[in-house]
Amino acid sequence: MNPLYFDNNATTRVAPEVLEAMLPYFTEYYGNPSSMHTFGGTVGRQINDARTKLADLLGASPEEIVFTSCGSESDNTAIMAALRSNPEKKHIITSRVEHPAVKNLCEYLAKTGYRVTFVPVDHKGRLDMEYLIRHLTDDTAIASFMWANNETGVIFPIDDLAGILSERGIIFHTDAVQAVGKVPIDVKKTRIDMLSLSGHKLHAPKGIGALYVRKGTKFSPFLIGGHQEKGRRGGTENVASIIGLGRASDFVAAHMTEENTRIKSLRDKLETQLVQKIPNALVNGDTDNRLPNTSSIAFEFVEGESILLMMNEFGICASSGSACTSGSLEPSHVLRAMGVPFTAAHGTIRFSLSIYNTEPEIDLIVEKLPPIIARLRTMSPFWKDTCGHTA
Amino acid sequence: MNPLYFDNNATTRVAPEVLEAMLPYFTEYYGNPSSMHTFGGTVGRQINDARTKLADLLGASPEEIVFTSCGSESDNTAIMAALRSNPEKKHIITSRVEHPAVKNLCEYLAKTGYRVTFVPVDHKGRLDMEYLIRHLTDDTAIASFMWANNETGVIFPIDDLAGILSERGIIFHTDAVQAVGKVPIDVKKTRIDMLSLSGHKLHAPKGIGALYVRKGTKFSPFLIGGHQEKGRRGGTENVASIIGLGRASDFVAAHMTEENTRIKSLRDKLETQLVQKIPNALVNGDTDNRLPNTSSIAFEFVEGESILLMMNEFGICASSGSACTSGSLEPSHVLRAMGVPFTAAHGTIRFSLSIYNTEPEIDLIVEKLPPIIARLRTMSPFWKDTCGHTA
Predict the structure, then answer these.
(1) Which CATH number among 3.40.50.300, 3.30.310.10, 3.40.190.10, 3.40.640.10 corresponds to the domain A16-251?
(2) N or C: where does chain B have the smaller number of CB atoms within 10 Å of the terminal CB?
(3) Structure ipTM
(4) Which residues in chain A are contacts of B105 at CB distance < 8 A?
(5) Which three-class secondary structure state does DSSP give residue A320?
(6) Are strands A194-198 and A209-213 parallel, antiparallel or unpaired?
(7) How many residue pairs from chains A and B have C-beta atoms closer than 8 A?
(8) Whole-model pTM?
(9) Are A262 and A308 a contacting pair, CB within 8 Å?
(10) Given B70, B225, B240, which is nearest A205 (Cβ)?
């Protein structure tokens, strides 16, 4: 059974065009780009070509791109680079709703002598800008704020942040893993110092990421080894996947308009109809500033995991939060930071679309989900007690 | 033109069997293994299967395997894990001939408050065991010694090291990137605490590696993020490449005998004939304890780079040292540590074979290389001056 895949913020399908671009680099052009011979050197030129394509997607220069193994490595690299390059500064500022690669690293650093400020968000997931500004100090080595939230799709005011932080001379890193390929990004216009992205969120394979590092930003490698990436990241280049990420950059650039029109309207239809047909269904997050592909809906008084399992019977794939925090039955730290009530946070489902989704798929979810929620509510003691419904 | 590829210590061809195993995981089974739905869960089971295959190759248990993005990340992870888990200890012991992922990291750490001992090697690349033992202290947090050298193929006495270090209660990490798949390894018999390996040295793709961590070894993640790899390495799993590494583990296990018979004898033939036909050609390193696939030969009084360029004309791919240190015209740190004279180190070529090499290829190199060396020597002022030859 082909899945009805609505979990694209967890990972995306590798575009067939991307796989096709990668294929020659496994068994045929398998040379090491660092080698002296033509067989390796040719591969090196393909890597440069991919670097240019990715740079173009961001409005960056190719030499500002450092390839990494994933978004998490990019995040770790950015934060550690800023701290190592500014050893006299001991303060980090970030938000309460970051991805675990930023959040857990900052919590670890807080135990090793750094001071970390976690800026709160309001009930719609919007950053408390006043709190943020109040907590910037001369000791602040790095500010790390995600471009768009992986669970709710809420977009932070990156232009404003860039303005405030560059004025204060504070290094600004943004985890743009969920934003790249979905919304236009131009580092020429927005003064970001470092930006993380991940291939597998934009139809390249898993296991490849990149970090944009603005020219002139002080840098120190996280993964220390050989001379690769101009000394900024040791380890033999993941050739096929780098070439895949280059091809995927072109692919998402070509589909950016579709993402923001067709996909956005499919998402809106799904959301509107589900909220209409299902009582006590609430959309999480700021619907005015959101990724075009993401909808986080709380179905009150039911368990997200139970919804997922019942949707799974129909091949519908979605998520109850971030895939990176799954395995835990705690409501997500994002929804908790937003103050979403326990009964709503627990029943939250994230639908995240890609250009491969279709209208008939939306219709099928709209048909299948209301009876699932109704059935689960008949089993929920909270539902009858609280609402007096009998479902 | 198909290359005559003798640079397998730099990187190997992905085995067609390995690519075949990977292919379904790009466009078809592209789910995130952390997802709740069956579509992702199925992928998770395939990862476990690959983990078991790799564990079998090493005599390890599957839960002792942590997948990483490359050998360099494995090395960084092992050393940082040992230091973070034993914060009271400030001494590291390693050798002078390690891969840059160990060497450069240790040099960096030496600047940040750690004491590092670099144990010397003799003219054959053999570890000075007495020096090593004399420099072990109660403050030693980790000993990191490679299994086999990437440039010369020289094998360190890992069993002896394991015995000495475990007796002293010192964590023993070995960078086995060049050894895994070429020589039998059994961590049940050899008391290694951590072992690094890299997929692309054993016919899996670039961009995947692993770290063996013996059960009970204190550990702290290097790449901090989500719950993946049981909290030992954040970042979405590189699914296709992990599955490739699993398949490659079976592949190299099946070819281990061939590696140590046919490939070894091809290597020996190449080496013997080149040394016979070319005056002033010297084999670097301990030929009694060497990888079966590696030959490092110094052609005195010529430049390695010039030899590579002229061999390149015939499609012969080899290396003048480690691909990870190329780009520099300095003789490699490995040959310098061995005290190989300048005139020999500069003219050193590494031939590294794989199961894809054939006897006719050997014959072709034996035919083409002697006139190349002769021609280069006619241009070398050192040659005539020093040896009185007229080539």
Answers:
(1) 3.40.640.10
(2) N
(3) 0.95
(4) 224-225
(5) coil
(6) antiparallel
(7) 269
(8) 0.96
(9) no
(10) B240
